[in-house]
């Protein structure tokens, strides 16, 4: 597997475009389009929030009930959530505009929105945006990068990843982009993620690969504990790599799953590191667990602890907060057997051994915790299972951003 530069346009046959439609933001792009030269197999995972935005319902119908998809249209600024029948009609009108402009089936057009909940989208601006983007579709990496920028809301950087590998003597590419910075506590995936691949694979296995992979990637991310109404990850496969179709769980399938996992992991980590107001990516690894479920529960409990997140912001090795968060997680373990380490580019230090302090150097710990990516590793000495969760520190700016988000 080779890590390459790129995102949604890295795979063969995929193009992207973006435009400034003036939906909510002024002076910046706020709509993106992803298009495949040929129809694709489509898979998706969606929010578990009972309150689901109109685009989520629209996309679920296409992914579950239609044989193919070919276009994704996304806007930022307004979420089209809690908008009733008018919101769903907006999805339909957007798809019809794309169908007319691109000469595709409207049932092959996926839509996504992100931004303020409760506002109605200006349908005319969306349709005009679709018409503006269609002639600008381009398969270049730059076009993909511009699309990644267009879907940002409070994100500070665009988020992309791509890899290549071989199946049956053919080069296969997986690439993707995502956005997410706040209202991030997915129970399936992140706010919005779009992954494209030219692999030839059955629709059933494509869905299974994605559904399984989100458990170890997007499901392990938390910024603030809030599960969005719009969470959507879409995976399109157009088969243009020309490999023999993957129809069973063989070595080719496992190679694809490995590549998909790399892309999704990188995107998930980019979301965590770009959490609203964050200054550091906070990674929590649980090792020595007796089951995967136990490790997942413990790691997510620590990464979502507000007190621990605040300590990471202060570069404070307040390990008691971590042990406390593990203790109320609901997972059973012996706190008197836990070893805890902090690690970053500045080094690694053992903070506690068998549940008590090692007498570590506070200065050394502060130095390690002062990097922009920090890892806490807890060994609970019960087995050989592991899990990793990603989050970020909790800063003053998080409150500032969300106190006046609508205004």
UniProtKB/TrEMBL annotation:
Against SUPFAM superfamilies, the record matches this protein to: DmpA/ArgJ-like (SSF56266)
Pfam families reported in the protein's UniProt record: ArgJ
Catalyzed chemical reaction(s): L-glutamate + acetyl-CoA = N-acetyl-L-glutamate + CoA + H(+); N(2)-acetyl-L-ornithine + L-glutamate = N-acetyl-L-glutamate + L-ornithine
- The residues listed in the UniProt record as binding substrate, with positions renumbered to this chain, are 153, 179, 190, 276, 402, 407
Q: Does the keyword Acyltransferase apply?
A: yes
Q: What is the E.C. number?
A: 2.3.1.35, 2.3.1.1
Please list the residues that make up the active site. Answer: 190
The record's keywords, sorted A to Z, are: Acyltransferase, Amino-acid biosynthesis, Arginine biosynthesis, Autocatalytic cleavage, Cytoplasm, Multifunctional enzyme, Transferase
The entry's localization annotation reads: Cytoplasm
Annotated positions for site Involved in the stabilization of negative charge on the oxyanion by the formation of the oxyanion hole: 114-115
What's one GO MF term for it?
A: L-glutamate N-acetyltransferase activity, acting on acetyl-L-ornithine as donor
The pathway where this protein functions is: Amino-acid biosynthesis; L-arginine biosynthesis; L-ornithine and N-acetyl-L-glutamate from L-glutamate and N(2)-acetyl-L-ornithine (cyclic): step 1/1; Amino-acid biosynthesis; L-arginine biosynthesis; N(2)-acetyl-L-ornithine from L-glutamate: step 1/4
* Predominant location: cytoplasm
Q: NCBIfam families in the record, alphabetically?
A: ArgJ, PRK05388.1
Membership in a protein family: Belongs to the ArgJ family.
How is this protein organized at the quaternary level? Heterotetramer of two alpha and two beta chains.
Q: What does this protein do?
A: Catalyzes two activities which are involved in the cyclic version of arginine biosynthesis: the synthesis of N-acetylglutamate from glutamate and acetyl-CoA as the acetyl donor, and of ornithine by transacetylation between N(2)-acetylornithine and glutamate.
What this protein is called in its record is Arginine biosynthesis bifunctional protein ArgJ
Native organism is Blautia caecimuris
């Amino acid at each position: 597997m080779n890590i390459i530069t790129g995102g949604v346009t890295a795979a063969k046959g995929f193009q992207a475009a973006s435009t400034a439609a003036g939906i909510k933001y002024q002076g910046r792009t706020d709509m993106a389009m992803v298009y495949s030269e040929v129809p694709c197999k489509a898979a998706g995972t969606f929010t578990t929030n009972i309150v689901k935005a109109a685009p989520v319902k629209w996309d679920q119908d296409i992914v579950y009930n239609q044989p193919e998809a070919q276009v994704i249209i996304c806007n930022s600024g307004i979420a089209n959530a809690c908008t009733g029948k008018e919101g769903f009609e907006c999805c339909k009108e957007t798809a019809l505009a794309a169908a007319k402009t691109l000469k595709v089936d409207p049932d092959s057009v996926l839509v996504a929105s992100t931004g303020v909940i409760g506002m109605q989208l200006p349908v005319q601006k969306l349709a005009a945006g679709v018409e503006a983007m269609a002639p600008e579709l381009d398969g270049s990496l730059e076009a993909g990068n511009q699309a990644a920028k267009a879907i940002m809301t409070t994100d500070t950087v665009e988020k992309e990843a791509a890899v290549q590998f071989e199946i049956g003597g053919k080069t296969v590419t997986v690439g993707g982009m995502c956005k997410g910075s706040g209202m991030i506590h997915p129970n399936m995936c992140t706010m919005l993620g779009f992954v494209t691949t030219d692999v030839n694979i059955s629709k059933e296995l494509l869905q299974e690969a994605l559904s399984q992979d989100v458990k170890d990637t997007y499901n392990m991310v938390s910024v603030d504990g809030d599960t969005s109404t719009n969470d959507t990850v879409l995976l399109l496969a157009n088969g243009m790599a020309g490999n023999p179709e993957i129809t069973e769980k063989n070595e080719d399938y496992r190679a694809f799953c490995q590549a998909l996992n790399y892309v999704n992991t990188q995107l998930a980590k980019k979301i965590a590191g770009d959490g609203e107001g964050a200054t550091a990516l906070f990674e929590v690894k649980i090792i020595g667990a007796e089951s995967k479920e136990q490790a997942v529960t413990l790691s997510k409990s620590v990464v979502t602890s507000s007190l621990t997140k605040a300590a990471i912001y202060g570069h404070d090795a307040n390990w008691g907060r971590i042990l406390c968060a593990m203790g109320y997680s609901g997972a059973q373990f012996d706190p008197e057997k836990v070893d805890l380490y902090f690690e970053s580019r500045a080094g690694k230090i053992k903070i506690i051994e068998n549940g008590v302090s090692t007498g570590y150097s506070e200065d050394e710990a502060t130095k390690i915790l002062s990097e922009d990516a920090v890892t806490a590793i807890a060994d609970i000495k019960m087995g050989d299972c592991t899990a990793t969760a990603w989050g970020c520190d909790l800063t003053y700016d998080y409150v500032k951003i969300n106190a006046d988000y609508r205004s």
